[in-house]
């Protein structure tokens, strides 16, 4: 169980949107929902896993839990613009 998402999801894919694996390296985007920032949003991070060791990198973007849940199915340019994409 990873330290980052243990308090929320017990290391399920509830907070993972994108996952890619190649040559023993796995990348996943996750929402770090342990503590909200001043705006009430949570930072988005990229998790890199190699040889069972995980490292997390913040990408400098954040979303609310509601927006994060909408993201996989959205085509809304407004939501994507809010993320800076």
TrEMBL record:
Organism per entry: Apibacter mensalis
Protein name per Swiss-Prot or TrEMBL: Arm DNA-binding domain-containing protein
A Pfam family of this chain: Arm-DNA-bind_5
Residue ranges occupied by any Arm DNA-binding domain in the UniProt entry: 30-71
